[in-house]
Design brief:
The chain has about 425 residues and is of the alpha/beta class. The chain is built from 14 helices and 19 strands. The chain has an 8-stranded mixed beta sheet with strand order 13-14-15-12-16-17-18-19, with helices on one face. A 6-stranded parallel beta sheet has the order 8-7-6-9-10-11, with helices on both faces. The protein has a 5-stranded parallel beta sheet with strand order 3-2-1-4-5, with helices on both faces. A hairpin with a 2-residue loop joins strand 16 and strand 17. The longest helix is centred in the C-terminal third of the chain and has 16 residues. It is globular. The chain starts with a strand and ends with a helix. The chain binds cytidine-5'-triphosphate. Cytidine-5'-triphosphate binds next to helix 1, strand 4 and helix 5.
Length: about 425
């Protein structure tokens, strides 16, 4: 019996999919189709898949041509499948030409010409209502935001607002947006989502105005240093059924969720300490000490909770160019320390020590692309790696898009209580 395998996402099942499955079947007697899992698609940067895994599997089965469906969950799985299932021929579309030649040592690899003029991408573009996106800024640098929105289908960045019309114009020209304005009402007309990247002193007013116009908002953290104002904004957003999301990229990363889950489960026993180091030099667009503190404090609060017993903060400013801050937390049964520097190169890391092992994130750990789980008494280090593309802002927009699709306006990645705890730590006076 000749066994054939083919793979794909098979989103919004179309004639091109049917054709390749039919032609694949003709290469043998038994056809296996690998359908990509949601997490694998996200990892390889395919963020806009419309149909659930279940629907995509059902559609593949509905062809009546397939003998077995499997789920493709990670890069490199094809080699395992070909060996494990004793595959004679792997069939794949011509968009992958040459990409699977390494499998020729195990089976025949056939690249078939794609069906012309149809693709899931085309269908998604037709079916998706485009959500109009605007940016409020005080400077003409986008920090990668415009490019990031292009990776999320269904989002179109329309225009930019700045109080200073020259800045708005410069931004608009530089990033080739459709229009710019310093008139708020004109700016928000027909927009669905606004991203606010202005100075913290202006964020509260802008957020309030956007919520008032029923717009969903992504804003840099904190919304304000005034706790009551932040609480008011969260309340207003809930009343109006609009999403108000903090732009803290790490909490929207699947890898970060995985890492939290491992740390909080008993895999490394009870957590004894969390140690963090961060330097501004590692950020492509530079970061202030405050910006970095938000990331470090978020990691600690997400790992250990909001209920710390004692907190101390020490700042050292050697000169204008070198700033250093050290934060120490004491919880009931563990401690955490974050050391953050601007202008000095600290060893970037996040290390969690538990009673049964440790988890180590190195280098630009806030992107959480890779971490190691080291268990007590186990020689082999367990390495986990995940894809992280661009600045990560695309994952924030994508989360918002999923929330809007499900008509869910509260983001569960960072609760209000966690947001308030992070702000409390930021507002703590240095000793
Ligand atoms: N395929 C094809 N002809 C098309 C579209 C897809 O032969 N017009 C093949 C692909 O080459 C692949 C399989 O169908 O072998 C599954 O492709 P998939 O990536 O799921 O479909 P696309 O329509 O290419 O999806 P997208 O636009 O999201 O890339």
């Amino acid at each position: 019996m000749k066994k054939v395998i083919t793979y794909g996402t098979f989103d919004l099942f179309h004639q091109g999919h049917y054709n390749i499955i039919k032609r694949a079947k003709a290469y043998g007697d038994y056809l296996i189709v690998g359908v990509t899992s949601e997490s694998y698609d996200i990892e390889r940067g395919k963020l806009s898949v419309h149909d659930s895994l279940l629907t995509r599997i059902e559609n593949v089965k509905a062809t009546g041509l397939v003998d077995e469906v499997i789920v493709e969950e990670y890069l490199g799985q094809k080699t395992r499948d070909v060996i494990q299932y004793g595959i004679d021929t792997l069939v794949i579309g011509s968009d992958w030409i040459g990409k699977f030649d390494h499998l020729k040592q195990y089976c025949n690899v056939v690249y078939l010409e794609r069906t012309k003029n149809i693709s899931s991408t085309q269908l998604r573009e037709k079916s998706n209502e485009i959500c109009r996106f605007g940016v409020i800024t005080d400077d003409a640098d986008d920090f990668g935001v415009v490019k990031e929105t292009k990776y999320v289908s269904g989002i179109h960045i329309e225009r930019v607002f700045s109080d200073d019309i020259d800045i708005a114009e410069e931004f608009c020209k530089k990033y080739e947006l459709d229009s710019y304005s310093n008139d708020f009402d004109e700016f928000v007309k027909d927009l669905g989502i606004v991203y606010i990247k202005s100075h913290v002193s202006k964020r509260y007013d802008y957020i309030k105005k956007c919520i008032d116009k029923n717009l969903h908002v992504i804003c840099d953290f904190p919304f304000s240093y005034d706790m009551e104002k932040c609480q008011e904004l969260n309340r207003l957003a809930k009343e109006k059924n609009v999403a108000l999301m903090e732009n803290i990229v790490s909490v929207y990363l699947r890898a970060f969720t995985q890492f939290l889950w491992i740390a909080r489960s008993n895999e490394i026993g009870k957590i004894l300490s969390v140690n963090i180091g961060m330097s501004s030099d590692y950020f492509p667009y530079g970061k202030t000490l405050e910006d970095m503190s938000v990331i470090a404090i978020t990691a600690i609060i997400k790992l250990l909770g909001t209920d710390y017993k004692y907190l101390s903060k020490h700042n050292i400013n050697l000169d204008e160019d070198i700033e250093f801050s050290s934060l120490s937390f004491r919880y009931d049964n563990c401690v955490a320390r974050a050391q953050i520097a601007k202008g000095a190169d600290l060893h970037n890391h996040l290390t969690i020590f538990g009673t049964e092992g440790s988890i180590v994130l190195e280098d630009d750990w806030w992107n959480t692309g890779y971490f190691k789980v080291i268990k007590k008494g186990v020689k082999k280090v367990d390495r986990r790696s995940f894809n992280f593309e661009g600045t990560g802002f695309r994952y924030v927009i994508q989360e918002l898009q999923i929330m809007l699709r499900d008509k869910r306006y509260e983001c569960n990645r960072l609760t209000d209580a966690e947001g308030e705890a992070i702000l409390t730590v930021m507002n703590k006076e240095a000793e």
